[in-house]
């Protein structure tokens, strides 16, 4: 049963230095029934690069793009995202960089990613957004500024954005909505990643895409609150010290199969979240 169903991972990372790397991840996911992955860059440290300036980020993007190429050899459809994670503001300043310099660097990185997106090398910018943990107001403001720049690129170059945000329900979505409206970026290309059921529900109400962690309870809660409006994500970070810390992509597939077998979801719903929503957001051919 459901042998014909295929599965998407709406937000995943790979680490070719200390993890499995894209090739192995792609093989495992495809053989579990995966057809689509949105691969998102990790901060440069994960690739063994200690960033001090834009050139170091460009090197990290090179590593990332070769991971994208490897993933494409195994997974039928792949979308690729590079950006500046809000946690990078904290990490750079903790290592002694001035806040102002970390902000400028973040803006440069996002501008660089936007150029690659305009040229068709990347599908969009991600992750950018706000810290989901306690930080200083100044660092939060810097991360928000970087997200604003990314929203401008979504407007000007049609880049898709993966937003990493706190999960504060409506407040999370509505504050982005105010920024987006002021900037004039298209809602349909701005994705709320790691969305709680409340965030996913509000995002769906306003017409934003979202990805929801592919855990059993979170998927069921999101389906209940938001209907089949989102894409499941593993947010796998490919760290051997924390294996499957969010989910492993292939585990996420198994969980959805179990939900189907238990009668908690139907095939139609799984098709909507794993295929229809991907086709709509990324404009890719269905499998
Ligand atoms: Zn994230
Ligand atoms: Zn992520």
Plain-language structure description:
The structure is a single chain. With 287 residues, this protein is of the alpha/beta class. The chain has a single domain (7-282), classed as Alpha-Beta Barrel (TIM Barrel). Helices cover 51% and strands 14% of the residues. It has helices at 21-32, 54-72, 86-94, 99-118, 137-157, 170-183, 197-206, 216-226, 249-261, 267-282; strands at residues 7-12, 34-40, 77-82, 124-129, 160-164, 190-193, 211-213, 231-233. α1 (21-32) packs parallel to α9. The longest helix has 21 residues, at 137-157. The protein is globular, with a radius of gyration of 18 Å.
Summary of the model, kept short:
This protein is of the alpha/beta class and 287 residues long. It contains 10 helices and 8 strands. The protein has one domain: Alpha-Beta Barrel (TIM Barrel), CATH 3.20.20.140.
Key attributes of the depicted protein:
287 residues; alpha/beta; TIM Barrel; 6-stranded parallel β-sheet; two-stranded parallel sheet; 51% helix; globular; binds zinc ion
Helices and strands, with pairings:
Elements: E1 7-12, H1 21-32, E2 34-40, H2 54-72, E3 77-82, H3 86-94, H4 99-118, E4 124-129, H5 137-157, E5 160-164, H6 170-183, E6 190-193, H7 197-206, E7 211-213, H8 216-226, E8 231-233, H9 249-261, H10 267-282
Parallel strand pairs: 1-2, 2-3, 3-4, 4-5, 5-6, 7-8
Helix pairs in contact: 1-2, 1-9, 3-4, 3-5, 4-5, 6-7, 7-8
The chain binds zinc ion (2 copies).
Residues 127, 164, 193-194 line the site of one zinc ion.
């Amino acid at each position: 049963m459901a042998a014909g169903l295929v599965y998407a991972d709406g937000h995943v990372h790979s680490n070719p230095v200390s993890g499995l790397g894209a090739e192995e991840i792609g093989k495992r996911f495809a053989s579990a029934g995966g057809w689509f992955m949105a691969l998102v860059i990790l901060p440069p440290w994960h690739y063994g690069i200690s960033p001090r300036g834009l050139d170091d980020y460009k090197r990290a993007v090179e590593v990332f793009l070769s991971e994208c190429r490897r993933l494409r050899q195994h997974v039928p459809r792949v979308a690729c995202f590079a950006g500046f994670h809000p946690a990078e503001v904290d990490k750079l300043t903790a290592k002694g960089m001035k806040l102002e310099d970390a902000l400028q660097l973040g803006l440069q990185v996002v501008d660089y990613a936007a150029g690659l997106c305009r040229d068709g090398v990347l599908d969009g910018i991600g992750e950018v957004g706000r810290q989901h943990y306690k930080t200083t107001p100044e660092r939060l403001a810097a991360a928000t500024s970087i997200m604003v720049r990314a929203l401008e690129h979504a407007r000007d170059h049609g880049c898709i954005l993966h937003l990493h945000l706190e999960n504060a329900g409506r407040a999370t979505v509505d504050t982005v909505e105010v920024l987006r409206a002021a900037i004039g970026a298209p809602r349909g290309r701005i994705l709320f990643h790691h969305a709680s059921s409340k965030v996913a529900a509000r995002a769906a109400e306003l017409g934003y895409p979202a990805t929801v962690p592919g855990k059993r309870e979170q998927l069921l809660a999101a389906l209940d609150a938001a209907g089949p409006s989102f894409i499941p994500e593993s947010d796998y970070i490919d760290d051997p010290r924390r294996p499957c810390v969010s989910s492993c992509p292939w585990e996420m597939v198994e969980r959805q199969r179990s939900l189907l077998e238990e009668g908690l979801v139907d095939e139609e719903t799984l098709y909507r979240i794993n295929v229809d929503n991907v086709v709509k957001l990324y404009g890719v051919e269905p499998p």
